[in-house]
Design a protein that fits this description.
single chain, seven-stranded mixed sheet, elongated, about 15% strand, Nitrilase/N-carbamoyl-D-aminoacid amidohydrolase, six-stranded mixed sheet, alpha/beta, C-N_Hydrolase
Length: about 475
């Protein structure tokens, strides 16, 4: 009788697998539904509960791989065999969290057992972001649009939000395993429900609290879709000259409209080495005359006989005509795109706060951008360049760095979503390259950021998960050794 019941449960578990598989298509990537990040793991965990661990693991790897192929299509800058390989490896790494949960859950039965899955998932995320050339791109925190929930980020970093998402799935399964007994439900309410409710209330309160700071008008200079399509029809030299002169003209327009800080989208200026100094001198003339700060994103083309890659950088000029700093892109989107920078964030102090810059893909790397918290940077000005499939996703990824480190963010994005956010992640202004003819976006941005717990303590929450899992592993191995000795 017992074998028959177990067989039926195993058969029924494929229904859980199917539900989880469907929700995986909305779990991340192209068709994100924030709630799917909570639901899909519930049913995948449930499926694995009634399968032999390794067999269930392989099946979850397979369904994860299939969904990855579809949901990341066009969102990762790769194709062919390498795309399928990366999609597969992403599924393997994620599925390991399900496998370890399945193995450990056999030995731990209390509510503490519900902490194993989210802890392992956070550890996998931590390792992935440390080693992955895509940084935090694709992590679960970027599936969430609830700002009250995201106010946990300045306290725990992205790890706290990821933990809560997966703890929800694990706890539901713990209750399910215990037939939703009233006593277990009460326990879950006190240990899970109250903390979650407190986090949401705290987040809502933080969002309601007005930012007490003067603002500065910042102008983002971009290209319109119509201009881009027109330029594709003319020769390269003409395109470059139009863009370069257009940038200077738009700087003058922005200054006359009250902007105090002006910068362009990624590589809005393109020129060979020998023309750079002349162009910067022209920009300095405008900066001095109109008393503005100008950030010039430059694609510096090497000499034809040189073996060097192009330079992707931004140079900042003060209202006195001084060159404040030049920052080189540290994390190219694909190999050979440009020469790498040293990865050290640079900044300047101004009457409008401490200003720093990074370029586009750099914002996907928490370990790079975390420097800003220690530097007390108030505003990050980020030139970017995207494509249709990753817009507006990629700009919101960048906004999470601002929430983590307490800076206000302005991102000027070619072929994407340009926007500004305050340090709470609240949208201040925006436009969409694909839906607007506006070349200049103005934004009034607070001149003061806010120190965060995360900027002081770093990835302590991820390390707490590591310590917890290692402790549970010690108990697991110890108990297994005792059982072996008893035989």
């Amino acid at each position: 009788m017992g074998k028959t019941i177990n067989k039926r449960k195993t058969q029924y578990s494929y229904i859980y697998l199917l539900i989880g598989f469907i929700f995986l298509f909305f779990f991340n990537g192209r068709w994100i539904l924030p709630i799917a990040a909570f639901i899909a793991p519930i049913f995948l965990i449930r499926f694995l509960r009634f399968q032999k661990p390794f067999k269930g693991f392989l099946i979850i790897v397979l369904v994860g791989w299939v969904s990855n192929i579809f949901v990341w299509k066009g969102m990762m800058p790769m194709s062919g065999f390498f795309y399928y390989l990366v999609s597969f490896m992403m599924s393997v790494f994620t599925s390991l969290a399900f496998l370890l949960d399945r193995i450990y859950i056999q030995k731990f039965k209390g509510i503490v057992s519900s902490l194993i899955f989210p802890s392992v998932y956070v550890i996998m995320d931590y390792i992935t972001i440390l080693t992955n050339p895509s940084g935090s791109y694709g992590t679960l925190v970027h599936t969430q649009s609830s700002l009250p929930l995201l106010q946990l980020v300045p306290i725990t970093g992205i790890w706290g939000v990821t933990f809560l998402i997966l703890w929800t799935a694990s706890l539901v399964n713990w209750l399910w395993d215990n037939y939703f007994e009233k006593r277990k439900v009460y326990s879950a309410f006190w240990w899970f429900g109250i903390p979650i409710l407190s986090i949401i209330i705290w987040g809502q309160f933080r969002l309601m609290h007005t930012i007490d700071s003067p603002t500065v008008r910042i102008a983002l200079i971009n290209s319109t879709k119509a201009e881009y399509e027109h330029r594709m029809k003319v020769n390269f030299d003409t395109l470059v000259e139009q863009a370069n002169q257009g940038f200077l003209k738009n700087c003058e327009i922005a200054a006359s409209s009250g902007a105090k800080i002006i910068f362009g989208r990624e590589t809005i200026i393109s020129m060979p080495n020998d023309k750079e100094n002349d162009f910067i001198e022209k920009a300095k003339t405008i900066a001095i005359r109109d008393s503005v700060y100008i950030g010039i994103p430059i694609n510096l083309i090497p000499d034809k006989n040189s073996n060097k890659n192009p330079e992707n950088k931004i140079t900042w000029i003060s209202p006195k005509g001084e060159t404040l700093f030049t920052y080189h892109k540290a994390k190219p989107t694909y190999p050979g795109e440009c020469d790498y920078g040293d990865g050290i964030i640079k900044y300047f102090d101004s009457p409008y706060g401490r200003i720093g810059s990074a370029i586009c893909f750099d914002m996907d790397f928490p370990f790079l951008i975390n420097q800003t918290g220690k530097m007390n940077i108030d505003i990050m000005l980020v030139p970017g360049s995207d494509w249709d499939e990753i817009s507006p996703y990629h700009t919101y990824v960048a906004s999470v760095r601002g929430i983590e480190n307490g800076f206000n963010l302005v991102r000027s994005t070619f072929k994407g979503f340009s926007a500004s956010f305050n340090y709470k992640g609240q949208l201040l202004s925006s436009n969409d390259f694909f839906k607007t003819d506006e070349v200049i976006l103005y934004s009034d941005v607070p001149v003061k950021g806010q120190k965060t717990i995360y900027s002081l303590l770093g990835d302590y929450f991820a390390w707490l998960c590591i310590i917890f899992f290692l402790s549970m592993s010690f108990v697991y191995v110890k108990n297994k050794w005792i059982n072996i000795k008893k035989r």
